[in-house]
Amino acid sequence: MEQTNRASQPSVVVSLIPLAVLVAFLALAIKLFGGDAIMGASQLSLLSASAVCTAIAIVGYRCKWQTLEDAIVTNMRSATPALIILLLIGAIAGTWMASGVIPTLIYYGLKILHPSFFLPASCIICALISLLTGSSWTTIATIGVALMGIGRALGFDDGWIAGAIISGAYFGDKISLMSDTTVLASSTSEVPLFTHIKYMVITTIPSFLIAIIVFTFAGLFATTAAAADTAQISSALEATYNISPWLLLVPVLTGLLISRRLPAIVTLFSSVLMAAVAMAIAQPEILMRIADVEELSFLSSFKAIVLATTTDTAVETSNPLLNDLVATSGMGGMMNTIWLIICAMCFGGVMWGSGMLLAISQIFLRMAHRTISVVSSTVCSGIFFNLTTGDQYISIILTGNLFGHLYDNRGLERRLLSRSVEDSATVTSVLIPWNSCGMAQSTVLGVATLTYLPYCIFNLVSPMISILVAATGYKIFKAKTQDR
How many CB atoms lie within 10 A of CB 117? Predict the structure, then answer.
């Protein structure tokens, strides 16, 4: 990616101006519009900050517009698969709900999961699925949505439910052999994959255990719905949908496709098709409601499937709470998020193309002297790039590339670098409202990023544990002793 030459590179103070503008505009947008800020105000904030960055770079430092445009295009290209995945996740949300897959999971979940242990159980379930699949996004979009419905039916606060789901999903994503972030962090830092994963266990397992302990105590002392309330929801589900264990074949087959390590786009699209077939077979009454017809035909069935996949669908039940749980927005519900990601990619692109990100990163490099300061600088850099670039993958690549030579010069193992990158860039991306991960999971779960942020225990604790372990010096050796 082309940048301005070093002689014309902006200073750190100047480079912080667009970031300050972004934070100020986003704070104002959230204050004025609350959760509706994603419907335009947040996007305008990102574009305004991008305009400030562009003006400073061109007028003050003679940066060529073509340089900035190329950086934006490169950023956009990296985000394209995520945009397609988001659309397919929206389609899954609609088809899995209308086909009865998610209602069936909620129905059986209410019978199996005890309220007192729902939060830690949700965290562990998502961790196992994400560990096997290597995808936090797929885990949250499928079993996470079902657990969200169960938790709401049990009376838990949205923040706690989403926090448990996200904590588990990102634990598995972080140390799975099949995770793209795990592979990216190890390859960027030039560390063998298995060496990277084994070294991450030192910080990842304690962080996960702390999360489980917190969720266990939260569940034990939480005020949940009475058994009569959950019984009413179960009855309403039975009265509205054809509940059948056969419907569970859709998530099972989806899991098998994931285990075959097919591309995420192929797997998600196949899951949508399977759910559409299940909808046509198992839920004729739901199809008639969605298509607004009194008798089904091939065309009306096709119309209902298209509507469930792409637009808002609301199925009326005898329970008001359940009405909210089973309402979906399909692919159309993802458009605000996609719009936001595009604007975030614009901001990240002009910040990188103008040289401002590189200028700010020098702060972290100058702070790194002893082992703890090197690791702390790496962790802070990973979080910072998540804040400024709006993309998890870019944060991993930039942090790994910027700090590689510093670790070599300090005689530190590269596996310490790859672990520090994962402990920061991978897990904190979902905590930032304008980051692609934060926007995606907020939209999928229907919970604002700032609402679930305080409850994502694993994601919050991981960076701190990384720095704490570095302070103790545990398992930190000189580079020459590393088995690479």
Answer: 14
Q: How far apart are CA 239 and CA 85, in angstroms?
A: 33
Closest CA relative to residue 407, chosen from 142, 248, 188, 203 = 188
* Angle subtended at Cα 439 by Cα 436 and Cα 444, rounded to the nearest 5 degrees: 120
How large is the C-alpha radius of gyration of the chain? 23
Which residues does residue 478 pair with via DSSP β-bridges, in sequence order? Answer: 412
Report CA-CA distances (Å) from 204 to 61, 209, 344: 43, 9, 29
Tokens of residue 467, six digits: 């720095």
What are the 10-residue block averages of pLDDT along the chain, 484 residues in total?
55 88 80 74 87 92 90 82 80 86 81 84 87 76 82 89 96 79 79 86 96 94 64 81 89 82 82 92 89 86 91 78 74 81 83 84 74 90 84 78 78 91 93 85 89 96 95 82 44
- Please give the Cα distance from 301 to 306 (Å, whole number): 9
Question: What distance in Å separates the CA atoms of residue 394 and residue 82, rounded to the nearest whole number?
Answer: 13
At position 290, the amino acid (one-letter code) is: I
